[in-house]
Amino acid sequence: MTSPTTRLTQPERVELSNRRLVLAAIELIAEKGWEATTAAEIGRRAGYSRAMVHARYGSKDAILEAFFQQDYVERLAPDPRPDATGLQRAVAHFDRVVQLHGEDPDFLRGMFIAGFEAVKTTSGLRPRVRSYLRRGTDRVAVGLRDGIQDGSVRADIDIERAATDIAMAVFGVAFQWTVFPDFDLVPELEYIRARLIRTYGTAQ
């Protein structure tokens, strides 16, 4: 019987192997952290040789770059729905985190652990995570400005403070979720999302 992978084109096989390597990296980040993870371990976890990993990426930092470009950013901060209000766009990352928790909690946990490792000044994750957080906060600010225009957001708010509040609120409960196995993430996210909507939204 022919294996499904034998029918893939070369670009499709490359994409599949890239995906397997990134997923293996996520698993290892969740288990032991990025700094303690090696490229060889990532390759073994994905079912590939160290030579193949080196040929494809060159280093584990290149795998990390693929993780942030293809998965962290796209999966945690997707493009908003075109029919969403400004306020809905400003809190859209809460909805996305809840969705990812249902689809792949291990992947989500790995993403947060990768982010938390950036607190170390020597971490290779630090500049990437800082850039991502800035972009996320900027996206929330755009949603708030649009919300003032469409009437879904209060006109008297301090956009900079509100954007930081909304963008970063998810990380407190995410930290508890990574530390306490029995912590129920979704209800806490929904509670915080509702609070933010009451705080910054208008009564439409």
Give keywords.
204 residues; mainly alpha; 10 helices; 0% strand
Compact summary:
The chain is mainly alpha-helical. Helix content is 72%, strand content 0%. It has ten helices and no strands.
Largest sheet: none
Share of β-strand residues: under 5%
* C-alpha-based Rg, rounded: 19 Å
The helix fraction, in percent, is: over 70%
Class from secondary-structure proportions: mainly alpha
C-alpha end-to-end distance: 60 Å
Mean pLDDT: 84
- What general outline do the C-alpha atoms trace? elongated
Spans of at least 5 consecutive residues with low confidence: none
How large is the count of helical segments?
A: 10
**Would you list the SSEs in sequence order as H and E?**
HHHHHHHHHH
Per DSSP E runs of 2 or more residues, the count of β-strands stands at: 0
Please provide a written account of the structure.
By secondary structure, the chain is an all-alpha fold. The protein is 72% helix and 0% strand. It is built from ten helices and no strands. α1 packs across α7. The chain is elongated, with a radius of gyration of 19 Å. The N and C termini lie far apart (60 Å). The model has no long low-confidence stretch (mean pLDDT 84).
